[in-house]
Design a protein that fits this description.
The complex is a heterodimer of chains A (308) and B (421).
Chain A: H1 7-42, H2 49-70, H3 78-100, H4 109-131, E1 147-149, E2 155-157, H5 158-180, H6 182-192, H7 194-199, H8 204-226, H9 238-251, H10 256-276, H11 279-296
Antiparallel strand pairs in A: 1-2
Chain B: H1 2-12, H2 18-37, H3 42-45, E1 56-63, H4 70-89, E2 97-104, H5 109-122, E3 128-130, H6 134-146, E4 151-153, E5 166-168, H7 173-188, E6 192-198, H8 201-216, E7 220-227, H9 235-244, E8 248-252, H10 256-267, E9 278-281, H11 286-292, H12 294-297, E10 301-304, H13 313-326, H14 334-353, H15 358-364, E11 369-373, E12 376-380, E13 386-387, E14 391-395, E15 401-406
Parallel strand pairs in B: 1-2, 1-3, 3-4, 4-5, 6-7, 6-8, 8-9, 9-10
Antiparallel strand pairs in B: 10-14, 11-12, 12-13, 14-15
Helix pairs in contact in B: 1-2, 4-14, 5-6, 7-8, 10-11, 14-15
The chains are: A mainly alpha (308), B alpha/beta (421).
Main location (chain A): membrane
Family (chain A): Belongs to the binding-protein-dependent transport system permease family. LivHM subfamily.
Membrane topology (chain A): Multi-pass membrane protein
């Protein structure tokens, strides 16, 4: 397939393809981190994760509308405000859901699955009632569209770079929170041994609520970021949920590092294969490889080593 | 029925002279016309137990108003309701006001089958306006054929189907594709094509037809790609397109994927207004542009039979009525217009047949002309599809298409193109 191309053309295509892989990687990280925190730390499978993402996207839509009509001069910077508001709204809703629903179901993992799935349907229908069934167009500031011209052929999409930066900052933030803060220590203690953690005075219910809220908040940020690359409609969240689960399960449910490694592996494999094969075949092959590896390592790439 | 009885009476007097029988005949015709104007009796226009009373007739609307397809199907529901309302205002069908029963297919194909059975068996509707995806139509098909109902199907689709119980008011694939490609070749000098679509039957069949046609013209397909429905990452294929440098990207990506595809094309530095490459789509109507954002599709071309911006008096009236009914911010895409045709074509068939009976409507349908169609003029073909013109539009930032080309003749529907299957 490379007949008749000059070396420089090929080099630039490979450079751009590498960038495509990296930007898919950052998308995966953003999608999966929130779910991984909740799934890994609490054992709750949040089927409504995609809907929390779309809540973030709708928040961005509303904030952009607000800036357009009230503060048009500051429109260029609205996105940063939108990200923060999206995080706060999703985290608040997450905390409420945990209090109202999830905490009653902790010992029944299958029921949390059903309950959060029901929640996802309710949220979808709510969006449909409020915003209408049609997708909304989120207008982006001019500087976020377009590409940086590196050479004649190599063009890097600005929104791709932007998603990358957000993904890295969030990953770093989560790392610091989990492994360098007192709160993170408490979370990890509860994960390892709930009764013992409670015995030393950790309020495990409070930790659960904060964890759930954090996971949902990150989903909100992801949703805000995805308005740049994807659609915002009542059921758009469904498009992300399968990939998200894939990344989390493949990485090993209780390991954040595993999530990142698996996001990297899957995104690189998929984007390379998409280049050489057709889109659907690439997806099939990726899934086959993941299934194969999970058969050999049922706990995922990075299993947490605990005594049982 | 009244007509035949009286005419038969006339025949019995034949022996008494031709003049007298002619007079009876004339009287019977006059009687028949006046009877028609003054609502023919229900047991005459409805011999199969449909929900027809002396002053109402019940029809069904069956679209997804929840679930992932709701985004696309709601426009069709709105158009069908508008048409029904207008027909009622103008006196109804055979003097009967149309009442509709609306059911939700919920974007789920078995639900479509279930609801169509309910509409036919329980509500005894005289016609169903509905289905949108091919999958939902295929789910309804056995039910509607079993109970002998009549479905008016609005979406442009892949063809390869012709049911005695369906009138297809959208284009089948060749109507949309052949004229579009011919236009790109003739007007834009296109030599190489890149076919890109979502991975299901409609894009695949469409691209098959496109490829065949391109081969026949002696031109080249340099790539053909499909992505799963809902796919959101198009960077790899954008790189491939950049490498292959086709003259035309022929796109049939649908749903939310569209938004991702066009946003990422724009972000990758592709400016469609340069037309290098030119993008010709058969799947992005004004409806989709609302979700994608006009600034992301400026300069793309679409091959459709209807655009909201069509300049003719029918369309002006239709757009104004639609906006008045559903709000000023509404946009009208190709399928929405096709859905609007459904109730009208049904009304004309019923009135031509003088009966609500499905078998009589089927017989009366071919040849029916609708001159007040927003798209201009359509006629029902023997094969239950519509003769209609194909148009090329160029997208503007405000989300509307500017019509740049229109076929001179009506395109003949050809649901079973030779050698394309």
């Amino acid at each position: 397939m490379f007949d008749g191309y000059t070396t420089s053309e090929l080099m630039s295509i490979f450079a751009m393809q590498g960038f495509a892989g990296l930007s898919l990687f950052s998308v995966f990280v953003l999608m999966a981190l929130g779910l991984a925190i909740i799934f890994g730390q609490m054992g709750v499978i949040n089927m409504a994760h995609g809907e929390f993402m779309i809540l973030g996207a709708y928040t961005t839509y509303l904030v952009s509308g607000f800036f357009q009509s009230v503060l048009p001069g500051l429109f260029g910077g609205y996105f940063f405000v939108a990200i923060i508001i999206a995080f706060l709204i999703c985290a608040a809703l997450g905390a409420f859901i945990e209090w109202a629903m999830i905490r009653h179901l902790y010992r029944r993992p299958l029921d949390t699955l059903l309950a959060t799935w029901g929640l996802s349907l309710i949220m979808q229908q709510t969006y449909r009632s409020i915003f209408g069934a049609r997708e909304v167009g989120v207008e982006l500031p001019e500087w976020m569209m377009g590409a940086i011209q590196v050479t004649d052929l190599v063009e890097l999409p600005i929104n791709g770079l932007f998603v990358m930066i957000i993904a890295l900052s969030i990953a770093l933030g989560v790392y610091l929170l989990m492994y360098r803060s007192g709160w993170g220590k408490k979370v990890r203690a509860v994960v390892q041994n709930r009764p013992m953690a409670e015995a030393v005075g950790i309020n495990s219910a409070g930790v659960d609520r904060m964890t759930f809220a954090l996971g949902c908040g990150i989903a909100g940020i992801a949703g805000a970021a995805f308005t740049m690359i994807g659609s915002t409609g009542p059921s758009s969240g469904q498009a992300y949920i399968v990939d998200t689960f894939l990344v989390v399960v493949f990485g090993g449910a209780q390991s954040l590092i595993g999530t990142i490694v698996s996001a990297f592996g899957i995104s690189q494999a998929q984007s390379t294969m998409e280049f050489f094969l057709s889109g659907s075949m690439a997806k099939v092959l990726t899934l086959l490889v993941v299934v194969g590896i999970l058969m050999l390592r049922p706990e995922g790439l990075m299993a947490l080593k605990v005594r049982r | 029925m009244g007509t035949t009885t009286i005419a038969a009476g006339g025949r019995s007097h034949k022996s008494k002279g031709l003049r007298k029988s002619l007079a009876t005949l004339a009287a019977s015709i006059m009687l028949a016309t006046s009877a028609q104007a003054a609502t023919p009796a229900t047991d005459e226009v409805n011999t199969t137990g449909l929900a027809v009373t002396d002053d109402t007739v019940k029809v069904g609307i069956l679209h997804s108003i929840t679930g992932t397809m709701a985004i696309s199907e709601i426009g069709s529901v709105q158009a069908e309701k508008l048409a029904i309302e207008q027909i009622n205002e103008s006196g109804g069908v055979l003097g009967r006001q149309i009442e509709f029963v609306q059911e939700d297919g919920a974007s789920d194909w078995p639900t479509f089958a279930e609801k169509s059975r309910k509409l036919l068996r329980q509500d005894n509707v005289a016609a169903i306006f509905g289905a949108w995806t091919s999958a939902s139509r295929k789910a309804i098909l056995p039910v509607i054929e079993q109970y002998n109902g009549m479905l008016y199907y609005p979406t442009f689709y892949e063809g390869l189907e012709q049911s005695p119980n369906v009138i297809y008011t959208g284009q089948e694939a060749t109507q949309q594709i052949l004229a579009g490609i011919d236009w790109a070749v003739k007007e834009k000098g296109a030599k190489t094509f890149y076919l890109l679509g979502s991975d299901y039957i409609w894009p695949r069949t469409s691209n098959k037809i496109a490829r065949k046609h391109i081969d026949k013209l002696g031109l080249k397909v340099v790539g053909e790609e499909y992505y799963p429905l809902g796919h959101t990452q198009f960077n790899s294929v954008i790189n491939k397109i950049k490498l292959k440098k086709p003259d035309v990207i022929f796109a049939s990506v649908v749903g939310g994927s569209n938004v991702a595809f066009y946003k990422q094309m724009k972000a990758a530095g592709v400016d469609f207004t340069d037309e290098k490459p030119l993008l010709l789509t058969i799947s992005v109507t004004e409806d989709e542009i609302r979700g994608i954002g006009g600034e992301n599709v400026e300069g793309i071309y679409a091959s459709m039979k209807y655009f909201q911006s069509l300049d003719n008096p029918n369309n002006e009236e239709f757009v104004a009525a639609f906006k008045e009914a559903w709000g000023d911010d509404m946009v009208i895409g190709d399928v929405t217009q096709a859905a609007y045709l459904g109730p009208w074509l049904w009304k004309m068939a019923v009135e031509k047949a003088g009966s609500f009976d499905i078998d009589k409507i089927r017989e009366a349908s071919p040849g029916i002309e609708f001159t007040k169609a927003p798209e201009g003029y359509v006629r029902i073909h023997e094969n239950h599809h519509l003769w209609s013109k194909t148009r090329i539009g160029r997208a503007k930032t405000d989300g509307q298409y500017e019509v740049v080309y229109e076929t001179d003749e009506l395109m003949e529907p050809d649901p079973f193109p030779e050698g394309y299957q």
